[in-house]
């Protein structure tokens, strides 16, 4: 997937001194000398930091990107799920020396603990599922490892998460690592990008949009969570939403093709893992729904699946990408 204005602007960010925000009450030197403890609340848990973590793992490329953008490359002892999405071009050199703990899935318990981290950052609670062989939160706590889950990926937040949750994570991470200025730069850039989209599409008629995911011959729809909010921020009128019974318990649901045909959205947004997946999805949609308005008018919008994960700058990239497709006259 192409680079978007937010990522391009971040590549040229110059750190400036800004007022601190969030829960941080001291700089890292003060804390290492016995200054006040930083406390953040994450997924209903309180995490306490007497000093900034020094051995950090990003459990997906999206989280690795945030850590690198905060200038933490020299503190990283691992990155995970590296084959699920590429890092932006401007960060690949920074990540070159960070050990790869896993490629297609989260690292198993032994691999993660062998890296001896004191902080791990994950997009969702899934990365801490003991039944899958991963280190769970209790095991990490016992090992003295602080585990932070992206706010939008918390179990209690997964159905109602918004793009703004990213800014909560950035401010928290800035406080934890003593980098509030860098965090504020990222927040400011993200908020400016969202404001730009909102200003451009204000007053324009919203097209109806369905967000789908295709795997083989299986069709699913998205109707809640951050993914739903991304469409709303981009100015789309979601045809599926949290009020629909199918999405009462989970943000995605398998969809009968007849239900999508009946909704007849003007635009179809779909997430993809790579170019082959995108081509296969487009082929399926065109073959299955030749009379759908979105297919007939060739309004098929593919976005990177990683950009729809919780706790990623890609959420803002996805808003911009989708808005450009919905309102080409405004960009």
From TrEMBL:
Domain spans labelled Fe/B12 periplasmic-binding: 55-330
Source species, domain of life: Bacteria
Pfam family, one: Peripla_BP_2
Signal sequence coordinates: none
Bilayer-spanning residue ranges: none
Family: Belongs to the bacterial solute-binding protein 8 family.
Protein name as annotated: Iron complex transport system substrate-binding protein
Organism the protein comes from: Stackebrandtia albiflava
């Amino acid at each position: 997937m192409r680079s978007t204005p937010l990522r391009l602007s971040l590549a040229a960010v110059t750190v400036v001194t800004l007022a601190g925000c969030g829960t941080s009450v001291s700089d890292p030197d003060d804390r290492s000398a016995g200054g006040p403890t930083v406390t953040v609340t994450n997924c209903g848990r309180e995490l306490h930091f007497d000093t900034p973590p020094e051995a950090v793992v990003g459990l997906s490329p999206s989280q690795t990107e945030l850590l690198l953008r905060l200038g933490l490359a020299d503190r990283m002892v691992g990155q995970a799920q590296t084959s699920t999405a590429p890092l932006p071009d401007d960060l690949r050199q920074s990540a070159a020396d960070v050990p790869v703990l896993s490629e297609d899935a989260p690292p198993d318990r032994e691999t993660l603990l062998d890296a001896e981290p004191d902080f791990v950052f994950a997009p969702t609670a899934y990365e801490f599922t003991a039944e899958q062989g991963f280190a769970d939160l209790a095991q990490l706590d016992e090992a003295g490892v602080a585990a932070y889950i992206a706010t939008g990926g918390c179990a209690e937040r997964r159905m109602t998460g918004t793009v703004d949750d990213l800014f909560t994570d950035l401010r928290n991470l800035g406080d934890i690592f003593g980098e509030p200025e860098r965090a504020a730069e990222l927040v400011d850039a993200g908020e400016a990008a969202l404001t730009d989209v909102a200003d451009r599409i204000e007053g324009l008629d919203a097209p109806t949009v369905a967000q789908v995911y295709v795997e083989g011959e299986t069709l699913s729809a998205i109707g809640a969570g951050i993914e739903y909010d991304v469409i709303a921020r981009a100015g789309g009128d979601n045809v599926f939403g949290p009020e629909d019974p199918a999405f009462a318990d989970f943000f995605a649901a398998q969809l009968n093709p007849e239900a999508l045909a009946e909704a007849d959205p003007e635009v179809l947004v779909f997430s993809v893992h790579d170019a082959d997946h995108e081509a296969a999805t487009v082929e399926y949609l065109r073959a299955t729904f030749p009379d759908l308005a979105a297919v007939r008018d060739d309004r098929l919008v593919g976005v990177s699946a990683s950009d729809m994960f919780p706790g990623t700058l890609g959420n803002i990239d996805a808003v911009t990408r989708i808005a450009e497709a919905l309102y080409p006259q405004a960009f």
